[in-house]
Structure formats: structure tokens, C-alpha cells
């Protein structure tokens, strides 16, 4: 990760809400503070592990029959590895593992795997990888994910007659403490911007904050999420190039500089 030097503090005085889950917010928090921002924690997602069904246990036992394993998040990696290790003390040879982003890749690497990661850390980026592009009819792909995730990869692969199986390992929910945290935060000082990194966090934020939430400038991490935020009525949407802290900072910096010049 590359962030501006400490002497360069372009976000000094800016109050930013970080909605990443507890335990996954520290890198972004540190990067924002390094460039002068005041950071407030408001986790909008927590995960609840799901037990494996008999069908899913069979998927785990059949791991070596999948040509590709695609892992959509660090949480999916951690929970998936726990389930798979019960049956696979050694990983199948020649199998391709794909992580959607760097944090997920680190989780898998810690288990002795060497996952591929797309340059663009999205499902669209995954679809551009050669092992996905070269899949043939009848090949099998296992997706480790949370309940109710995007279906873009599945739909694209099924159109090529590739079999795609989902291992739903957890569900996402709004933390019970979020409402109280938001009331406390807004009483202290109204923040200047909020960082939203998923569709679930966006929807939880709008449910939590109502019309007031729509007026707070929101940094999102993809064009797709930006379009969804605008569709749902968020007044100011700042699209960062990725989830990387330097890209979030760049989006906030560009917005702040444009605002100072009087540009909407």
C-alpha cells in the first residue's frame, strides 16, 4: 500500500465515517489519519457463519473435481478453509484458486495456497483472468461466498455450459449496535463523508440514516456501486478506483479540491 507522506495531509479537518466491518477497518483508518482526516468507526456489516448442508458437505468432499475455486472475501476464505481442512489435509494438485482481492489472497496464502488476483478487484476483474476465460463446457467451478452475493460470475460461466456451485458460508447483517453508534456520532459532529464498500453496507446505511444518509457524500469502490447509490437517491457519490486506501483517499481529495473551487 502506498499512501501520501505524513507531511502531505490533504484531508486535514475532514471527518470521514468508515463503515468497514470491525477487524477489517484498521488499514483504511490508518491511511486516512495519515493524511489528516478524522475517522469515525460505524461498522455496517457483521457476519454470521452458516452450517454446511449435506449437499454442501458433498461439495467439500468433491473439492478435487473442481477446476477453479473462486473466493469472494476474506471471511469466505477463513470460513471456507476451516471447512475444507476437515477433509483435505493437502490441497488438490493442479487446481486454480482465485481471490477477488489482496486481503482474500493473503488469507489463502496463509493456508499454503497461491491464488490469482485480478488487477481490478471485482467480479468483472475475475472474469478477465485467463483461467476463467479458458474454461470449457463441463468444467466445474466452486465459489466460496456469503449468502446472497452477486451472480455475475455464475451467470457468465453458465452461459458457457460451465457448472458453478456455491458454498454459502455466512450471511451478512446490520450490527445491533449501529443505530446507537450513529446517534452518538451525529450528535458529536456531523461527518463530511462516508465510505461504503458493498451493496449491503449501502442498503444498511440508507435504512439506518434515512433521508439524512442520502445527503451525506458517499465514497464507493466501483462504478456499479456508484450507480446503485445514485439510483437510491444519494446526492453526492464519489467513485474510488478500488477498495485500496490510496484510491479512497484520492477520491476524497479530488472531491475536496473540487468543492474548494466551487465545482459540484
Describe it.
This protein is α/β, with parallel strands linked by helices and 264 residues long. The chain has two domains: 15-45 and 174-260, Rossmann fold (3-Layer(aba) Sandwich); 48-172, Rossmann fold. It has helices at 26-34, 54-61, 74-85, 102-109, 123-127, 130-133, 152-158, 178-188, 199-215, 223-231, 245-260; strands at 15-18, 38-41, 46-49, 68-71, 96-99, 140-146, 163-173, 193-195, 218-220, 237-239. It has a five-stranded parallel beta sheet. Helix 1 packs across helix 11 and helix 3 (74-85) packs parallel to helix 4 (102-109). It is elongated. 37% of the residues are buried. The model has no long low-confidence stretch (mean pLDDT 92).
Quick synopsis:
The protein has eleven helices and ten strands.
Quick tags:
5-stranded mixed β-sheet, 5-stranded parallel β-sheet, 4pyrrol_synth_uPrphyn_synth, Uroporphyrinogen-III synthase, elongated, 2 domains, alpha/beta, porphyrin biosynthesis, Rossmann fold, lyase, 4pyrrol_syn_uPrphyn_synt_sf
Helix content: 40-55%
Count of discrete domains:
2
| Uncertain regions spanning at least 5 consecutive residues | none
Strand percentage lies at 15-25%
Return the CATH architecture of the largest domain: 3-Layer(aba) Sandwich
Radius of gyration: 20 Å
Could you give a short account of the major beta sheet? 5 strands, parallel
- Helix/strand/pairing category: alpha/beta
Task: Note the topology.
Elements (H helix, E strand, L loop, with lengths): L14 E4 L7 H9 L3 E4 L4 E4 L4 H8 L6 E4 L2 H12 L10 E4 L2 H8 L13 H5 L2 H4 L6 E7 L5 H7 L4 E11 L4 H11 L4 E3 L3 H17 L2 E3 L2 H9 L5 E3 L5 H16 L4
Parallel strand pairs: 1-2, 1-8, 4-5, 4-6, 6-7, 8-9, 9-10
Antiparallel strand pairs: 3-7
Helix pairs in contact: 1-11, 3-4
Amino acid at each position: 500500500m502506498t499512501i501520501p507522506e505524513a507531511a502531505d495531509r490533504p484531508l486535514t479537518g475532514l471527518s470521514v465515517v468508515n463503515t468497514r466491518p470491525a477487524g477489517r477497518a484498521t488499514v483504511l483508518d490508518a491511511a486516512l489519519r495519515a493524511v489528516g482526516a478524522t475517522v469515525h468507526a460505524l461498522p455496517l456489516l457483521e457476519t454470521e457463519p452458516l452450517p454446511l448442508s449435506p449437499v454442501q458437505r458433498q461439495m467439500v468432499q468433491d473439492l478435487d473435481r473442481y477446476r477453479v475455486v473462486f473466493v469472494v472475501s476474506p471471511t469466505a476464505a477463513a470460513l471456507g478453509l476451516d471447512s475444507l481442512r476437515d477433509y483435505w489435509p493437502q490441497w488438490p494438485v493442479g487446481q486454480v484458486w482465485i481471490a477477488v482481492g489482496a486481503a482474500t489472497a493473503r488469507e489463502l496464502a496463509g493456508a499454503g495456497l497461491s491464488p490469482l488476483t485480478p488487477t481490478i478487484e471485482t467480479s468483472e476483474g475475475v472474469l478477465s483472468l485467463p483461467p476463467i476465460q479458458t474454461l470449457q463446457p463441463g468444467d466445474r467451478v466452486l465459489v466460496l461466498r456469503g449468502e446472497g452475493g452477486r451472480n455475475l460470475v455464475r451467470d457468465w460461466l453458465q452461459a458457457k455450459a460451465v457448472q458453478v456451485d456455491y458454498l454459502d458460508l455466512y450471511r451478512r447483517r446490520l450490527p445491533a449496535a449501529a443505530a446507537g453508534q450513529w446517534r452518538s456520532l451525529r450528535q458529536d459532529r456531523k461527518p463530511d463523508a462516508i465510505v461504503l464498500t458493498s451493496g449491503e453496507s449501502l442498503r444498511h446505511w440508507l435504512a439506518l440514516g434515512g433521508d439524512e444518509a442520502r445527503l451525506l457524500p458517499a465514497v464507493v469502490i466501483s462504478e456499479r456501486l456508484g450507480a446503485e447509490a445514485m439510483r437510491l437517491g444519494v446526492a453526492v457519490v464519489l467513485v474510488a478506483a478500488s477498495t485500496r486506501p490510496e484510491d479512497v483517499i484520492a477520491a476524497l481529495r479530488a472531491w475536496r479540491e473540487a468543492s474548494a473551487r466551487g465545482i459540484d
